Amino acid sequence: MAIIVNVQLVRLALGCIQPADANSVSKFLGASLIGDDNLLSPSVIQTVFDGWIADGDVVSVHKKSQLYSLTRQGDKKLNPKERKVRDRTRLFLLKNLRAAKLHLPEAGESEKADVSSAVIVDQPLQEDERPTGAVCPPRVARRADRACWPLLAKQLFVGSSSRASGPFFRFLSFPTIKACAQANGLDSIPSDGIGLNEISLALGISPQLIGLLIHKPERHYRTFQIPKSNGGTRNIQSPRTMMKVAQYFLLDYVLYRCPVHVSAMAYSRGCTVRNNAEVHVGRRFVANIDVENFFPSLSRKIVFRELIASGMETNMASLVSRLTSYNDGLPQGAPTSAALSNIALYRIDDEVFNYCQSIGVEYTRYADDITFSGESLEAVQGAIEKIKALLNSIGLVINKSKTRIFGPSSRKVVTGVVVNEWAQPTRKSRRKLRAELHQATLNPEKYAGQIDVMRGKAAYMLSYAGEGRPVGGLPRGYVESSLAKLAAYIKEHKG
User: Fold this and answer.
1) What is the rounded distance in angstroms from the CA atom of residue 64 to the CA atom of residue 426?
2) pLDDT tens readout for residues 349-401
């Protein structure tokens, strides 16, 4: 009996979960269409794929696993309505995949997706990763590894584990950037870099949608205000799902290869406020300065210029800067803004760092919080003037009301950490935790639901303790016994 195959349905399914094999497409169709598991067998779908390979509509991206992705030619054969369905379905699935919130559609399955569904860091060098030179600053720089997303099809049907996630592709839908360019009909990567068409193929969505994200960004951001500690408000521009997933892709697959200076202590792997503060421990003078309106002041022109300076090709730099800007600045809610701020300030960080090294001053920057420390007041003041001039040259302004220089007899605080003799949390934060622990001992029923939060706070505080380096007012024994009493109360009343 002849089997009539709706090839457009197969094309749509592959577009939603690519790269995928025939078995995954069959399962996806079965789960999506009224639970009909026998809708199309994998062998029938594989026959369709074989025909598409000959026609140039799909490309085999992993021969061993028999995984396939649509080429530009194959993607164009989806009609406008099908592309719209595919784009929305795929982006919402990718959003949950990256956030490790993807769950199996079958309620009876024993294996559920867990935190290992989230991105993993891929350690080996990639084809497009720029080599690292032998010369480096005195402090150890953090490696900017690429993050890879697990196979969407694999996670949909088998849950997740480190051994069940399948291959991790170098460019989401394709093993390399070159393979992505070839799927767009090019012989090799263009000299000015890949652009909108190749990025849309890698993401597995329509280039028209990316064009809409660029030219109509107001449709894809949610704006609101949050209160600031000083009583004012901060404007937040939070990207909606489609924009956010596209920006996550750029962050994990493109921006990872741009250098981050050793002095940029925020938003880098392995760097914390503690790392930032410890650089300045025991210095005679410590100066803190703050940049006004930091993210919105970093214009698209500056971002584009510094992406080029970082080694990114012109075409790619243009696309990245346009897709990650809002009202000609970095939106204060986009996942890419933090990384782009470090990239945009790399050359300033480098110049200030080298200048400070020559005059005996330490320099770190934690986002818009800049810290200098040294033994000479004149040297610290000179470093402040240096960075003011450099920041002014790109349109950034220092907040004079938040500029502070702490002298020898002052309590010195850097990003919320006291650095006079050793790094430790402020007395206010220590006393607050001690009070919470005391209240939890007296009223355990009130604090039972907060035990995980309190454990986190306690672990953070005690991480500063060491031999001959106590955390004032917070003995380890007191903290541990208080938490143990609260845990015992929860265990006793759980039943």
Assistant:
1) 56
2) 999 999 999 999 999 999 999 999 999 999 999 999 999 999 999 999 999 88
